[in-house]
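INFO  loader      accepted 1 record
INFO  loader      residues=83
INFO  predictor   begin
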Amino acid sequence: MVNSNSGDDMPDFSNVVSGASSTAAKSEATFKMYTIVSGDSLSKIAKREYGNANDWPRIFEANKDQIKDANKIFPGQKIRIPL
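INFO  predictor   done
INFO  writer      dumping tokens
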């Protein structure tokens, strides 16, 4: 049961300003979309994007929802490249 006389126990959100979430904008800005082409591999994409083929796990981790095996990517597949 809530005691209406205990206003001091409740957080004061009176100064909260509504607006767009900064989290949403940040998540969009931290990735760029890329469409796999024939001959691509995650290491080739990592070499091109980051300058180091060994950074391919960054791309794999960002796309685990659609890439189950790092060796099986397909032309036309759209993936996120972490920036």
